[in-house]
């Protein structure tokens, strides 16, 4: 085990619960839903349940739950074929690729004196990426090759241009960018990238789960891709780190901004019974909900894909927790053949 420099608890309290609360994170606006041919759901509407929405997600995705601005085109239905050969209908969702309800922040410290603005995972534990952590890398990895800062000035080596971001963040890793903290921005890639998905209108349970590997698990209600786990071992093998921000996301050239973890910024559709809020949909059509309910409790009967069934929602998923480097474990339903979830860059992202 590598020695861990710190934990994220302080940063979670000061940034996630403080600054992000000021930005409106965690409070999705169902009134501002996308125009998809259906009325917006308002959990505060006295004409319905005042405690939120409950629906059986085994019956399919509800397009009206996507927030205003989260999709680049109207959500429409079209014919599609599942990976098991079954012909069915799908929703075509073109995600905007930029969160509707929180800002993107820096993830790398600029000097060895700076406080943390991002996170990295070491042996399955999430750590604050601050100046002292950068100094400690040689100790953390027990390797003197790690030297991610100028010892004379204390300046941290960070990718600062589009060219540097592309070279450092690609696969295979460019050895010229060893000992860099990789930070890309939407400005580096020319703005947000739209990502297209085909999501079954009526989910079908698979005989065997589909491993995610390099398959993006789904899309959030605020217009951002849920991404498969970052290849941390490969990134570290190049003497690099590519931190995620306080919302669990970062940017790369292939898919733009995306989430590797769900850290409470997405907002969602509150549920009528205190159940965890709906935050997005998996590419098999089942809903993805926050990890815990309004009492902070996690379901005890989750399967390896992070799914279970209840009477109100049918089968659905719950997001993984802090430091897991993933949103869900696998897909229990059958995805669409060629169902999208890849940006215009063409290949799988390295981070």
| SS field, number of helical segments | 5
Mean pLDDT: 84
Number of domains: 1
Using the CA coordinates, give the radius of gyration.
20 Å
Strand content: 15-25%
Order of helices and strands: HEEEEHHHEEEEEHEEEEEEEE
Shape: globular
Q: Give me the count of strands.
A: 17
Straight-line N-to-C gap: 23 Å
Strand order of the largest sheet: 11-12-9-8-13-14-16-15
Outline the low-pLDDT stretches. Answer: 1-7, 12-50, 343-349
* Class by alpha and beta content: alpha+beta
Please outline the major beta sheet: 8 strands, mixed
- Bin the helical content: 10-25%
Q: Which features does this protein show?
A:
three-stranded antiparallel beta sheet; eight-stranded mixed beta sheet; disordered N terminus; alpha+beta; 351 residues
Task: Characterise the protein shown here.
The chain has helices spanning about 10-20, 130-135, 135-140, 160-170, 230-235, and strands spanning about 75-80, 85-95, 120, 125-130, 180, 195-200, 205-210, 220, 225, 240, 250, 255-260, 280, 285-290, 305-310, 315-320, 330-335. With about 350 residues, the chain is of the alpha+beta class. It has one domain. The model is unreliable at about 1-5, about 10-50 and about 345-350 (pLDDT under 50).
